[in-house]
Amino acid sequence: MSSAKTKTNPVNKLKLTGVHKSFGSNHVLNGVDIAVEPGKSLVVIGGSGSGKSVMLKSVLGIVQPDQGSITVDGQETVGLGPKDRDAVMRKFGMLFQGAALFDSMKVWENVSFGLMQGRGMDKRSAHEIAIEKITAVGLKPEVGDLYPAEISGGMQKRVGLARAIATSPEIIFFDEPTTGLDPIMSDVINDLIVKSVKELGATALSITHDMASARKIADHIAMIYEGRIIWHGPVDDLDHSGNEYVDQFIHGRADGPITRRTA
Amino acid sequence: MAAKLENFPDHKDSQKSGGPVGFIFNFFQAVGGAILGFFQKIGHLTDFALRSVAHCFMPPTFFKQILRQLVDIGYYSLPVVGMTALFTGMVLALQSYTGMTRFNAESAIAGVVVLSVTRELAPVLAGLMVAGRVGAAIAAEIGTMRVTEQIDALTTLSVNPFKYLVVPRIIAGTLTLPILVLIGDIIGVFGGYAVAVYKLDFSAGSYISQTWDILETMDVVSGLVKAAAFGFIVTVLGCYHGYNSQRGAQGVGAATTNAVVSASIMILIFNYIITQIFFS
């Protein structure tokens, strides 16, 4: 494992080097190497069980990698103490697959939670910012006074996005942002993601297996397979990657190297 | 351990053969695995409890959350604890009367009621009732937050889930259960008094004076110490099982059951230990 505070290429906002993670005998990550440049949007595609979520949770510090290095702005984050970890977390925003809204709180309280509890902002200012962000994701301000259980899945995703951008993070993570939504709502969420990331000038790391979403929000795409990045390139190169695994995945073919290996 | 055992060729052979050696090997492997798993869980729980206590004394403190839990755990448990104490005191007076009359020792009823209620029945029954009401609710709420990624969301919003979810519940449980038990003591003794005076025709004045004469400060204090310990046990186990909940709805259900069962057993064990410390 790399030593703390290792300086790496300053061009990379986020960099993973040789990240390994196992749960018992199940080796989920087998040396993930990936980097995201500042202000760019990287989408990691891959099938179920390929290690996407564990990779994301490793970056967020929710899962501790067994081996490897994860740097944010050149600072090593693996093995950080609570104080240093807290400073890194303040750079992050996250949209969860199921939105993960706090169901005991109103929508505006969800959006302003990071501002009030995480950063000690007063209630009035936090409420103002929350309503501004709720409006920014295309919802009416009145939605702020509803509880998450009173709004639709698509609206919950928008609220989740509003919460992710409320603290103006430098890096935003999107975990399967369009899963469970109809095609139109998926496109609306994709547009909002692109708009929000551009307005904030943020760096984005998304994981998805929705190719329409990936093509829309990505500057670069990487494919993870069996816990390793097997292809990485600009989104325009995706259709002529020359990688048969990528070809099978993006075209959703039942026959190909992925199914042959798992059969 | 299983992985290591698989490296022994003899073990693999004996498993395949299915003979008596294989059976014995499998038996000891299962027993050993269960014992190791048990101690692993004890270690995990102890680590969780110690970390919880440490976080209680480290900033930041979420006072609003503590206040909310004081109301949820303390105030809303008052009816169930009060009713339990009232009827326990009443039944105790009745049962004591039927037993004591055989030895012409009716005058001891007031003492039996007040000592039983303050030393044992109020803290233990309040602890068990709170384990059922509060322990289950804590495990279900935190467990649901775990499986719907709300706890992960707290982390990404720079809020320590331990401080925000676990610490307020533990502080509230440890502080409010002694207050509940003190109220339960008064209600339980009153229940015994009501039955003795209004049903068994005891003199109100002599019943009260007998109660006061036999009651010592240590009787009440020991009950309150037990209550604080039980409050800690119920909330720690509720938080522990909820926090480590897995596998969706089934996992949350299992966490809820485990929280109540383990808290109830621990209350009975610690009741004996604390009684031994105070009265041996």
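Confidence is low (pLDDT under 50) at residues 1-9 of chain B.
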